[in-house]
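User: Can you recover a sequence for this backbone? Please restate the input before giving your answer.

Assistant: Of course. Working from this structure:
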């Protein structure tokens, strides 16, 4: 199977897919954009609807055609693939919109999981909507939701952050900005930065309960649970892991009940043995408060004690 040149039509093909060796015809699709979720690891997690849409589309826009070819080859899909990613999106998007306006159906997929999640596809969706084109979603696997299901942390409210900044200073600043959110926090992270990201999370948020989910749905799936500081130490000692990683962190507890007097008292006590910076960090982490806000108060208290 060959990859189509960007947004060029291929010849006649059979619009069908294979399920357990049987050929299933794919019904015609109405013109528009189809946002299709694909498996995050185990290819058996693909839905029948996703297969039908990918087989019936005129073109599949894929984040990495080499990765996506494995999936469509497994299910006998002959729809041409064309790359659509952050580096070519501005060039490809107008041609994709034009094809849909002319009556074609395009499927949008990412390397794994649900498109638009940490993915440039949202601009294509936004412009398709603005142009009055139909946009349809075929839901399915998502690494963030799968990790939430196995983390053992509250799922009634959660905040998906995606990838944190790669540099520690910017990362810690962003973590601190998230500290007061009263919800479970969900992050994606690269294996090479996992240990240092966990250390920064522990520094800014304290020993909150957390889980690290790795290689979800794959043969070597692993979920480690524990306080952030313990997880940071474990991964620092173990070396760089492999695979895709999701970090899930519990929400701050008791933040709403902290009175001004209690906060001031804890800062005064902490300042007896710690620097202003360390005292503020410790008290902020304990109550899930923005570190800068607590630091300003600690600085004022330290000045008053002189």
């Amino acid at each position: 199977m060959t990859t189509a040149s960007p947004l060029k039509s291929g010849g006649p093909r059979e619009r069908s897919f294979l399920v357990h060796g049987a050929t299933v015809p794919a019904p015609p699709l109405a013109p528009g954009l189809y946002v299709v979720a694909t498996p995050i690891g185990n290819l058996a997690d693909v839905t029948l609807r996703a297969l039908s849409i990918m087989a019936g589309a005129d073109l599949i826009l894929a984040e990495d055609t080499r990765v996506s070819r494995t999936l469509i080859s497994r299910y006998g899909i002959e729809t041409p693939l064309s790359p659509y990613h952050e580096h070519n999106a501005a060039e490809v998007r107008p041609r994709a919109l034009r094809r849909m306006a002319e009556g074609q159906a395009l499927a949008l997929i990412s390397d794994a999981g649900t498109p638009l999640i940490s993915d440039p596809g949202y601009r294509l969706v936004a412009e398709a909507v603005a142009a009055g084109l139909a946009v349809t979603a075929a839901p399915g696997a998502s690494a963030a939701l799968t990790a939430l299901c196995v983390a053992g942390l509250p799922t009634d409210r959660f905040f998906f952050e995606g990838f944190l900044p790669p540099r520690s200073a910017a990362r810690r600043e962003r973590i601190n900005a998230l500290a007061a959110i009263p919800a479970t926090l969900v992050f994606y992270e690269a294996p090479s930065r996992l240990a240092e990201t966990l250390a920064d999370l522990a520094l800014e948020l304290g020993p909150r309960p957390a889980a690290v989910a790795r290689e979800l749905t794959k043969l070597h799936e692993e979920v480690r649970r524990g306080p952030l500081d313990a997880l940071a130490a474990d991964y620092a000692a173990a070396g760089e892991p492999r695979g895709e990683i999701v970090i899930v962190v519990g929400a701050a507890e008791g933040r709403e009940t902290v009175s001004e007097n209690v906060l001031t008292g804890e800062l005064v006590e902490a300042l007896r043995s710690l620097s202003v910076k360390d005292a503020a960090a410790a008290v902020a982490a304990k109550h899930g408060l923005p570190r800068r806000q607590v630091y300003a108060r600690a600085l004022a208290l330290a000045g008053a004690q002189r």
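That completes the design. The first helix runs from residue 48 to 56.
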